[in-house]
Specification:
single chain; alpha/beta; three-stranded mixed beta sheet; 326 residues; Spore Coat Polysaccharide Biosynthesis Protein SpsA, Chain A; seven-stranded mixed beta sheet; 22% strand
């Protein structure tokens, strides 16, 4: 059963609401797994859903199913005509259009989306008291929201309108954030109640840019977002010393290191045990660090497919990624 290898707290679950994330490949599954487990550890009372693309391999789907309540495949190429048409007209928005599939989860009345490179630091169930479209300001341009964390209400009508908007107008940043800001264009002025505090989407790399503010409010952070090209899984981590190093870049910022240590602590303590059938194909890590191998699991995850998608071909074997542990 989903979550069978993880001890779950006996909590009443609101079955018609969900936390949702997206994993587009095996690498981002690492982030999704830690995110899901961080929600579990902070006693989330909503269901956990992960959307996956055909690029996510079967073994990773099995592991995802042990953390998430639903693993749902979304496939643009084989989707209904209007989705496929949008993709053909705007192939540059492939990943963006994939993320929009979260609006098709109409068996839920309300959802909170979190990017796979976020980490939950405390219970955030109160976000379900917010309305669509609630999000936190983007640190780079506060009149825009950051699309790494947002509250939404699944709706096929909204999904269709978003696809039409993407087809007609594209995205000013080439990604989902530009598209969503263009679609929900009155976010900055219409209703201040839809402005989430920055503590719900704290950029890990702004802790030194806004040092005084972080010192004042950082302890209240509820969700940290690892923006930029350096993700937790691109670092080396030695649990014996607690040191986190970016390959070729020395130590990370002090505050960022604290968040990275929390991420790796969950990965090492809770996710690696799920991979007990791991077989390391290569051992390329430096002394004291071992490249994480991938599991060869005989059973197949029971995966729910989005009603707009059709079965995809057999998935490729897992590829090795550059994340490290001892």
């Amino acid at each position: 059963r989903p979550g069978g290898n993880i001890t779950r707290l006996l909590l009443s679950t609101v079955s018609d609401q969900a936390f949702v994330t997206l994993a587009t490949n095996d690498v981002y599954c690492q982030g999704a797994l830690v995110l899901g487990q961080s929600l579990r550890e902070h006693r989330a009372t909503r269901r956990l859903v992960v959307l996956v693309t055909p690029q996510v391999s079967n073994p990773l789907r099995v592991i995802l199913s042990r953390v998430f309540d639903e693993v749902i495949e979304v496939n643009l190429i084989d989707s209904a005509d209007y989705v496929h048409l949008a993709f053909l007209k705007r192939p540059d928005l492939g990943i963006t259009l994939t993320k929009l599939h979260c609006w098709t989860l109409t068996h839920y009345s309300k959802c909170v989306f979190l990017d796979a490179d976020t980490l939950v630091l405390s219970n955030i169930d109160e976000l379900f008291d917010r309305r669509e479209f609630s999000a936190a300001p983007d640190p780079g341009w506060p009149d825009c929201f950051n699309s790494g964390v947002f509250v939404f209400q699944p709706s096929l009508e909204t999904h269709s309108l978003l696809l039409q908007h993407a087809t007609d107008h594209g995205s000013f940043d080439g990604a989902d954030q530009g598209l969503l800001n263009s679609f929900f264009s009155n976010w900055s002025t219409a209703d201040i109640r839809k402005h989430l505090p920055f503590i719900y989407n704290l950029s890990s790399n702004t802790t030194y840019t806004y040092g005084p503010a972080f010192k004042q409010f950082g302890s209240s952070a509820k969700v940290v977002h690892f923006l930029g090209s350096s993700k937790p899984w691109t670092y080396k981590y030695n649990p014996q010393t607690g040191s986190v190093l970016e390959e070729g870049s020395g130590r990370a910022d002090q505050h960022q290191t604290s968040f990275l240590n929390q991420w790796w602590g969950i990965y090492h303590r809770r996710i690696l045990p799920l991979c007990e059938n791991i077989r390391n194909k290569d051992h390329q890590g430096s002394p004291g660090h071992t490249t994480i191998g991938w599991p060869e699991i005989e059973t197949c995850a029971e995966v729910r497919r989005d009603p707009l998608s059709t079965p995809s071909p057999q998935f490729a074997d897992l590829r090795e990624i550059q994340s490290y542990s001892v």
